What does this fold into?
Amino acid sequence: MLSEFKDFIAKGNVMDMAVGIIIGAAFTAIVTSLVGDLINPIIGLFMGGVDFTNNYAVLSGDVAEGASLEAARETGASVFAYGAFIMAIINFLIIAWVVFMLVRYVNNVKAAATPEEEPAPEEPAGPTAEDLLAEIRDALKAKA
It folds into this structure.
């Protein structure tokens, strides 16, 4: 059983998947920073300087006016954190776009690397069955 496990781990697909997961985790940190540090402030400008990630509605409990989302959660209040949810959607869309662009780039590189097959030269068309039969008929008539 141990040798089967070693064979499974040694397969290229498993190692590729592991590398992909590690790179994906690192990439998620980059995208989170991009959204939190660059995109979020721009969105905040359009919303009148409001910090977008701290937009929430209190469902139940007492929360001080203007408290951050983290402070509201620490009080034990039930909050509807729609700003955090919207940011998660923005994160997803950015990640999906970048992955799309990477896959598109890789596909273009693969297409450029594989030589296009030239169509095989067409062989001259041979005589049809009717042509052969006509030749046989003419040959038989000539002998008769």
Q: What stands out?
A: The chain has a mean pLDDT of 81. The chain has one domain: 2-103. The domain at 2-103 is CATH 1.10.1200.120 (Non-ribosomal Peptide Synthetase Peptidyl Carrier Protein; Chain A). The beta strands are 57-60, 78-80.
